[in-house]
Amino acid sequence: MSEPRKIHPLLKPALEIGPLIVFFVLFMRMRDKTVMLGGTEYGGFIIATLVFIPVLVLSTLVLWRLSGRISPMQIATLVLVIVFGGLSVWLNDPKFFKMKPTMIYLLFAGLLGLSLLLRKNWLQLVMSEALPMQDEGWRILTWRLAALFLALAVANEIVWRGMSETAWVNFKTFGLPAIMVVFFVLNARLFERHALPKDGE
Q: Which InterPro entries match (predicted)?
């Protein structure tokens, strides 16, 4: 397997977060408006989704072209965005796109739990180069992350079913990423406790 090519450290997060920002900005500008396309009236949420899908596809292809690698998480996210986002646009129904994070988090939680049951820690295989830890540390982190994904799936269902579209868009754009950042910050002690010894130690 070829080694991933190095790209500018700011370019990778820009390509990953950029499509979500595009969706957020477009939704906020179009949320109280409607657009007539092909004789059908579409609300701002659907228009933002319609733009978000090709932007995400393009950014993923650019990232792949520049780095030579796409993670399994990015592939799964892209497929689910195309499927659920496409259903929302095709059926003119926002609920399918709002369900997408739930499906993603349930998928990730299931895969992480399955990997532990099979005693093959896939998270460790994917992230071990970036975060060198002992096997026990990876086992603990995987269980915690699986539990977090389950909690996020439930949270997404509560927000999109019980709150406004604007609240859901804010939750998805800012709340979910912030929760992930806080999760890894809170696990800093775990990383330190189970870190692999450096050369000479």
A: YciB (IPR006008)
